[in-house]
Design goal:
mainly alpha
């Protein structure tokens, strides 16, 4: 008697997971480049990992190949790419001379990223499935990594050396606090616009891409500062609304 036929999957259906694993390879390689003092290349690899992280989930939904293992892979890779890797890169760039104090800042940032991802996973699975439909609670981990790298972007844009380690350490800890915050930040994938403005959006995207290619570090500084402004607006709006008791958990 023949047993059940093994389940077959197409190569196309594996593309989202391949993107996720590719992002992990980029993040781990960024750590290697940082160890070789190739910090510019390390930052570009983390940025590349963030782009792939934004694509894998959308591709999975488009191909209808979403799975539990894919979700777990995505979360684990996010922790390495946007938690562990940025912490180590910033440590090697500016914090080694601070020794214990610098390492404490790294640990605060990495643990905050871990708690952020754990809360996100729990919210999607059981406790509060609607928590992040209209936006995010706190700063998402890819955006947190880009914010944490702001001192590096500024140093490279201005052609200076590493900024003072104390400032970098305080900034890392502050970004960690933003990631585990309970305030709401917008989800740009929910952004919509009228069809008549499509041409302006396309031209704007082309201009942004050109700026990233011509002046990558200065453009990333500007994007970070714009996002900091968005966070400030979100905090002000949250302060004017009546507070609700948050659910228990991370």
């Amino acid at each position: 008697m023949e047993g059940p036929r093994p389940r077959r999957m197409s190569i196309i259906g594996l593309l989202p997971n391949m993107l996720t694993v590719g992002a992990l390879c980029a993040g781990v390689t960024a750590i290697r480049f940082a160890m070789e003092a190739r910090f510019g290349a390390a930052l570009l690899l983390i940025f590349f990992a963030a782009v792939m992280d934004g694509l894998d989930g959308r591709l999975a939904r488009l191909l209808r190949s979403e799975s539990q293992i894919g979700a777990e892979l995505d979360s684990l890779c996010d922790f390495v790419n946007f938690g562990v890797a940025p912490g180590l890169i910033l440590w090697m760039w500016a914090l080694q001379d601070m020794k214990a104090a610098g390492w404490i800042a790294v640990l605060i940032y990495v643990v905050s990223c871990l708690l952020r991802l754990a809360r996100f996973n729990v919210g999607h699975r059981a406790i509060d499935a609607t928590a992040e439909k209209a936006g995010f609670q706190g700063v998402p981990s890819p955006a947190g990594a880009m914010l944490a790298f702001l001192p590096m972007f500024m140093a490279f844009a201005w052609g200076t050396g590493a900024l003072h380690g104390g400032l970098v350490a305080v900034w890392m800890a502050a970004v960690g606090a933003l990631m585990i915050g309970r305030f709401h930040t917008p989800s740009f994938k929910k952004l919509t616009f009228e069809a008549q403005y499509v041409r302006f959006v396309v031209v704007g995207f082309a201009a942004l891409l050109a700026a990233l290619l011509a002046y990558p570090w200065a453009t990333l500084v500007v994007l970070d500062l714009i996002y900091v402004g968005i966070i400030g607006v979100s905090l002000l709006r949250g302060a004017t609304k009546p507070r609700k008791e948050p659910p228990d958990g991370a």
